[in-house]
Design goal:
The protein has six helices and eight strands, in the order βαββαααααβββββ. With about 150 residues, it is α+β, with helices and mostly antiparallel strands.
Length: about 150
């Protein structure tokens, strides 16, 4: 975890910061099916286990957007700023889905702060993020996540 004593310390920190690695998170078929239901994306490669077993990956795979949607959970606690009231998701840049996540796999996020800038409410933070699949050579996803860290005086 990257810990900063204040917003000023965050804004003046030497970057890029050290990497933070999350815990592994299992991607069960039930999670994939629930995401398919939530998004109305029931493509067979995600939900039809019998058909997917003879498909290109030998099993169902998670939606790329499911992997992306897990970033808040995977990145929980990766940047802590003393005196900050909250973190607001500001957006994403450079999102790429590189490797499918098979059902039953485990993923984790590796992230680091690569840029900061003052913002009207506190600080804008850019995180370089990659989501790794246990045992896979290439990551599932790479992205830059943009956050606003809001000071407690706001």
């Amino acid at each position: 975890m990257a810990h900063y004593e204040s917003l000023d310390a965050l804004l003046s920190a030497q970057l890029p910061a050290e990497e933070h690695t999350s815990q592994w998170m299992p991607i069960e078929q039930s999670r994939i099916t629930d995401f398919a239901d939530a998004t109305d994306d029931h493509q067979w490669i995600h939900v039809d286990e019998a058909r997917a077993s003879s498909g290109p990956y030998g099993t169902t795979i998670a939606h790329g957007y499911l992997t992306l949607a897990l970033l808040p959970a995977l990145l929980e606690g990766n940047v802590e700023v003393a005196g900050a009231a909250l973190r607001i998701n500001y957006g994403l840049d450079h999102v790429r889905f590189l490797t499918p996540v098979p059902s039953g796999a485990r993923v984790r996020a590796v992230s680091r702060v690569v840029e900061t800038a003052p913002a009207s409410q506190g600080a804008r933070v850019t995180l370089e993020v990659r989501v790794e699949i246990e045992g896979a050579e290439r990551p599932a996803l790479v992205a830059h996540q943009l956050l606003i860290v809001v000071g407690d005086e706001q």
